Amino acid sequence: MVFFTCNICGESVKKPAVEKHYQTRCRGKNKNVSCMDCLKDFYGEEYVAHIKCISEAQKYSSQSQGFTPKESRNKNAQKQENWMDIIRAILDSSEYKLTPDVRSAFQKLQSVDNVPRKKAKFENFVGNCMRMSRHQASQVWDILEKEINKMKEAKQAELARIKEEKIAALQKQQKEEAESEEAPPKKKAKQESAEEAAPEETSNGVSGDFDWPAQLTKIVGKQADGIFLEKLRKKLLKKYAKHLSVEDLTEKQAKKFQKRFDKQLKLADSLQVEGDLVKIAS
């Protein structure tokens, strides 16, 4: 919950209560508040868009001593942020032709940071906390539901496009590797490139393919909450060395491993990379 300080009377006010405060305590005054966490000033309706602020760890940590707090992985906060994005998209869109009453309802929703995301709870919430009639609440929800479905379809289309691009890139890579293996080495540089593109070899010279997608999915799948990128790399490196029947990789093998690791991680449709965390794609 974001808290503000009224710059007119000095009173501390919760974000949902700002409107009421300027209708009663500071009636007739222009809205002028500052955030209690980041100390930023907001004029008029600017405060409505301020739905998230810095954490206490960020506020009081000493940057001069090299301490930087990690970003919180609050899933509920992220869901609420997405919910607010939907509301803002509806207000900015000309598709829905909002009546003044319905537009006013959506503007009020912008100033609340705990809006339920299920129909029954949503209608009870706006009815009890925002004095909205059941009919109007149902109208607002229908518009929300339509926008949510539209965003889901757009996201699915984007994921399909990305998947097609990955498949095309993989097919192109496989074609290039096949062509480089068939071409006779004219120069030393071309010969080394062909060797890098060739399948991994064991220490006794027997060729064998290392199943990158399967090994990556197997390791990540064992971690319900995902696995850190560096830890995943180390685990896969052990399996890769075992595949080559060696204790330690040579410098050339290590470079090749890192290059293939980065590439295969990007191409893996079953995996999802979020910063330094890798998890099974949902």
From TrEMBL:
Chain residue ranges for the region called Disordered: 170-210
UniProt KW keywords: Coiled coil, Metal-binding, Nucleus, Repeat, Zinc, Zinc-finger
Molecular functions (GO terms): DNA binding; zinc ion binding
Subcellular location: Nucleus
Residues covered by the Zinc finger C2H2 LYAR-type domain: 33-60
Coiled coil segments of this chain: none
Chief subcellular location: nucleus
InterPro entries assigned: LYAR, Znf_C2H2_LYAR, Znf_C2H2_sf
This protein's name: Zinc finger C2H2 LYAR-type domain-containing protein
Organism from which the protein derives: Drosophila gunungcola (fruit fly)
